[in-house]
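Private note to self, pasted from the team thread so I don't lose it. Backbone tokens:
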């Protein structure tokens, strides 16, 4: 679509449109852009591809893909993808581990699920490995990198099933494994994802990671709410450049250690229909622009 056909909404430039709708139990989504391919690559690339259980807890019970507790139906299912080979092996290990620890938890009616409490600390003793994480808008190695993808996939499923999000924080920059506005960052113990079950029946979380796909399915007695999520990119901001001297590089050498990422403002419209009545909530998610980082050899 020609960029010149971009429309003005409330004085802001709409540079893209993204929608998610829960059709039956399946999450259907799409993205239309008014940016050219190079600009969209700049906006999206550079992000991550993209917490042991409490000591007194029982080990989690994993649910096989495609099945839930007796007497339940699939309320919604959401899938994200991740790489498993080469440099991504440690991150994939963390995704598998956090998925196993999330799967099987049941949220009783009126109760709140804490991702951090369920999945636990991300430590070496708990089985996690060092892998890329987002810290201060930059990609660095951190313990348990990849856990946020599990939290993000749970968040998207919860949002589209009509559960109440009690606590949630997006990343400081977009993630490549999920659409902007649907990611969730978790950091033990201060940054958590908390979800409340507003229904009078329990909801069971089934999570499976295999062959590069992570799927979170929510199971319950019925599907009381129809949720439609419509998202607009209402603004973008350019990124700057930082040049850092690196003593490990030969003099005169330049190396891009991190791609720049544009900042973005995402306007979300969430429509929830229950018993013939529709309510609408409009909010905004912001991502800061992230510098392009260039490392250079020290001058002699």
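Design output:
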């Amino acid at each position: 679509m020609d960029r010149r056909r971009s429309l003005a909404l409330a004085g802001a430039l709409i540079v893209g449109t993204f929608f998610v709708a829960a059709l039956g139990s399946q999450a259907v989504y799409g993205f239309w852009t008014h940016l050219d391919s190079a600009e969209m690559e700049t906006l999206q690339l550079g992000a991550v591809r993209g917490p042991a259980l409490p000591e007194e807890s029982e080990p989690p019970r994993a649910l096989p893909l495609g099945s839930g507790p007796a007497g339940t139906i699939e309320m919604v299912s959401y899938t994200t993808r991740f790489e498993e080979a080469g440099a991504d092996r440690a991150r994939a290990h963390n995704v598998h581990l956090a998925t196993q620890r999330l799967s099987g938890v049941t949220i009783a009616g009126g109760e709140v699920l804490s991702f951090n409490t369920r999945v636990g600390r991300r430590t070496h003793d708990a089985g996690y490995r060092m892998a890329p994480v987002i810290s201060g808008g930059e990609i660095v190695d951190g313990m348990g990198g990849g856990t946020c993808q599990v939290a993000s996939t749970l968040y998207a499923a919860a949002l589209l099933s009509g559960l109440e999000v009690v606590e949630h924080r997006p990343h400081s920059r977009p993630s490549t494994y999920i659409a902007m506005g649907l990611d969730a960052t978790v950091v033990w113990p201060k940054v958590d994802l908390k979800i409340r079950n507003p229904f009078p029946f329990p909801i069971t979380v089934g999570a499976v990671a295999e062959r590069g796909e992570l799927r979170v399915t929510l199971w319950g007695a019925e599907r009381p709410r129809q949720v439609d999520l419509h998202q607009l990119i209402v603004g973008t901001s350019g990124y700057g450049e930082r040049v850092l001297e690196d003593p490990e590089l030969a003099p005169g050498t330049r190396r891009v250690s991190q791609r720049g990422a544009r900042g973005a403002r995402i306007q979300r419209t969430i429509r929830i229909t229950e018993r013939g009545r529709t309510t609408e909530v409009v909010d905004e998610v912001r991502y800061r622009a992230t510098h392009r980082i260039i490392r250079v050899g020290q001058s002699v």
